[in-house]
Amino acid sequence: QHSLSPTHLLYLPSRELRGLPFEQLACVKGMFGHNVTRDFSLHLFVHRMTMPLLQSNHEEAITAFQTAMRSSTVETLTMPETQVERNKVTLVSDPYNEDTLNTDGETLIDTHKRIVQSENLSSPLHFTGDTYTPSRDDFNRILMESSGLVYTGFGRVLSAFGGSKVAGNLHLGHMKMVALLVMASNDAAVRRQTKSDSTKTLAELKTDQAHATALLLSFRGVRSVLSVISPVPTLLIQKAADSLVTSMAKNKEPVFAARKSLLQHEVPVVERYQRIGQTEAAQLPPDMAEAPQGDDSGSEGEKTALLFDAYSASSLVCYGLPWVRVA
């Protein structure tokens, strides 16, 4: 339970069922909306919640966890709120400088620089790939010295952290939140990912999957992992980073509320196919050009639609504590 979300649904899917988009079921959305999170086991979820009790000087407790201890008894455990220090939130965007689309809109790096300046995020560890190609030591330093991380880029991410052998040996109990806005794709990213994959064993390739990466980070102590688990267009990754960081840093929204605001956001249909700041006309798919989905809005009856369609929405999954927020 949470003061901002009295009813929150926790999914604990098995390995065989983890690929199903439970969050998009009509019955679930009707009862819980987007107040849904996942975890890998109930034991791990309770461990995430009780970790703050091992630390001191926490803020006023506003969260509670109810567990059926006996058939006729419910015990309530009151927990401190989990907050990320603002100056320890690190943004890493397009670390391999692969966003080279020829457009008049913003690139991922442009969006990164605008967000850092507008939201006054002062971490010295912010990184973009237009300066130099980062090493594994650079990524490990970011993981070890940050309390929150928003990583935006192409392809999969675990190999950038040094793979499971390196990342699996890091103690990340200080990390409150990691947002992995990845799985975008273009030619440069595919070539890099293919070259990297050619040197990995089958076991390493399995560990490099989005679900396994979230599991590894959770086992190392991260409280909340927000991850894109399926390939989505680069412009959605860009807009997700812009919306999530603004919601959490400016509006002080917890992870679940920032995700909810993003998934409920409606835009004119044409904006679903435009980069931030793009003025060039976007080429709509034939079905959208002929009969765009959505409701009429505005005095001119402009068609609108959800920024994230059902597939894209199912790709953005929250693991662990959904109420982590920026202090």
Explain the overall architecture.
By secondary structure, this protein is an alpha/beta fold. The chain folds into 2 domains: 9-83, no CATH class; 84-262 and 312-326, Rossmann fold (3-Layer(aba) Sandwich). It is 32% helix and 21% strand. The protein has 12 helices and 15 strands. The chain has helices at residues 26-32, 42-50, 108-118, 136-145, 163-167, 187-197, 202-207, 210-219, 234-249, 255-263, 286-290, 310-315, and strands at residues 9-11, 36-38, 61-70, 73-80, 83-84, 89-93, 127-128, 148-154, 177-184, 224-228, 266-268, 296-297, 302-306, 316-320, 325-326. The protein has a 6-stranded mixed sheet with strand order 7-6-8-9-10-14, with helices on both faces. A 3-stranded antiparallel sheet has the order 11-13-12, with no helix packed on it. A two-stranded parallel sheet has the order 1-2. Helix 3 (108-118) runs parallel beside helix 9 (234-249) and helix 9 crosses helix 10 (255-263). The radius of gyration is 20 Å and the shape is globular. Mean pLDDT is 82; it is low at 58-62 and 291-299. InterPro entries: CFAP46. Residues 281-301 are annotated as: Disordered.
